[in-house]
Amino acid sequence: MAATIKDVARACGVHVSTVSRTFSAPHLVNPATRSRVLAAADDLGYRPNRAARALTTGRTFNMGLIVADISNPFFPPLIKAAQAQARGRDYHVFVADTDEDPRVEEELIRTFTKQVDGVLLCSPRLSNKMIERLAEDVPFVVVNRRIKGMPAVLMNVAQGARLALDHLAELGHRRIALVSGPIGSWTSNEMQGVAAETPGLDLVFFGPNQPTEAGGLAVAPEVAACGATAVLAYNDLVALGLIEGLSAMEIGVPDQISVVGFDDILPGRLNRPKLTTVAMPAVQAGRMAVDLLLQSGGEGATVTLDTALIVRESTGRAQT
Amino acid sequence: MAATIKDVARACGVHVSTVSRTFSAPHLVNPATRSRVLAAADDLGYRPNRAARALTTGRTFNMGLIVADISNPFFPPLIKAAQAQARGRDYHVFVADTDEDPRVEEELIRTFTKQVDGVLLCSPRLSNKMIERLAEDVPFVVVNRRIKGMPAVLMNVAQGARLALDHLAELGHRRIALVSGPIGSWTSNEMQGVAAETPGLDLVFFGPNQPTEAGGLAVAPEVAACGATAVLAYNDLVALGLIEGLSAMEIGVPDQISVVGFDDILPGRLNRPKLTTVAMPAVQAGRMAVDLLLQSGGEGATVTLDTALIVRESTGRAQT
DNA sequence: AAGGTTCTTGCAACCGGTTGCTAAGAGACA
DNA sequence: TGTCTCTTAGCAACCGGTTGCAAGAACCTT
Lengths: 320, 320
Description:
homodimer; about 325 residues; alpha/beta; 434 Repressor (Amino-terminal Domain); Rossmann fold; 3 domains; six-stranded parallel β-sheet; 13 helices; 12 strands; about 15% strand; elongated; DNA-binding
């Protein structure tokens, strides 16, 4: 059995409150007493029970981080950045994965409530309404979603999409396929919005799709058949799957079809051809999300981070 | 403010203990009362505070999962499998990443203590002695490590290494480079052990290395210079980095050097050349680890899972 | 030496639940 | 109708800490 505050108190003949203060308000206890207590605590291997402490103080010094899919290489750098940032603030981050399932997402949030001081919600699949309701029980920072009055870290997807479309237009592409992501994805909507209002393009929409390689692989035949000479994919994973699917059909990238992804994940940099993509500032986002959560007195500050087009090998001149 | 058990009790004029029992021992309360309580609870949006409950019951229905590096694609499938399995047992899994740093690992374990019912420790970097000591405070299941008397899920690395070496020998390779992982890695030791006792091989050891692409990239020049015609890499990430580094030096894989990895991660399947590798049963391991944690009354059951060689394109006949 | 500060510590209530014990009330049975 | 179970619900202690309040001790002032 782990030692409790009582054991320590008994061990050095002092009241529990003195032991408690030794740890949470050292300046209130006599240096001599303090060192006696510390010695006894060390001796017994005592460590304050964080859960019990949280019960009275209301603060756990933990935060939750919920992502749709840890398998997506986009998230790990964000997670690591958040953990590192939190550690510097004396906080710990617990991560959970929703498997892209809104119900799991809701359940996880409920579980986190009261066990953490706040939750970082990355690319949520829940409806805005539901998120707002859950926000009554635990503070949120949402990443990649805009919700009125709620602190958010956004990546400038619109800007990225514009850069990507300009790049494709410059290469002579006119008929462009837009392969979107899952329902409820803010990113998807942003991309479609920008594309739709860009003049001079002949767009073909495909979606919703799973935001994974499998999703890309699955739409490859349709994309090939639609006559587009270029594709803007929901993310790099989809782009990679798409390229895989196209090459299985003997369609060359970028010779016959150009492909642009989003995120700039590592596998895209190793792929042949190396993926042209819109880089998302995942590391910055992770850091900002933590800061926002700790600062926000419930204030709805929104931070928007810039994106950048990285041209590699998966885009080329349109076939004439 | 979230509703507490008291609010519910007041709302329907019963004692708090009755409300408590409505949720934790429904059969002890009169159906009529029960439904009144449930109605009131629903009305107030009451949810039991899991942390408070854990204080008296000693059970949190949470478990921790600590990995060395979430960025390594090997872990996400394991994590997801564990979460899914735990969910089926009414448990939740909180994940944390140590960044390959033993001190962070220790701190995370300490944080988890008392907030979870047990911890799954994947590929730990801490010493056996330290792990044994920490095990006094919270139950563990270790994955990829053998510690006396502690429940463990092992993958048969030795078997996999043997298969890989046999495969290379059959292709005519004799001088083989062994690129190991970080210090404190059980997997690395297993590999080296098998290789050392295999007769007829001319081995060159390289290590310790970071278990990442960067690690593989960094040793590529030395490996190229050592005259080996084949490499057994610590994991797929290292193998991928190695291939990248070798091709940057215009050394063809598998034409000039054959490369075998470990894990069977997704990027290895998409790489050109597709990676020959020893598949590790990550999904099974995640599931088993959860089961072991929930079963073990502190018993030290050990489960060993089989591995399999998957021959793809990164291995070929030795140059003559 | 009396009165006022400042330090230090103990007391006890509280956070949100759980649970062993007890007693009131209902129903069964003679 | 009296006695004996069996349900059902309340009481109160407890889990491991925190914290406002108050009292005693030590130290200063004048």
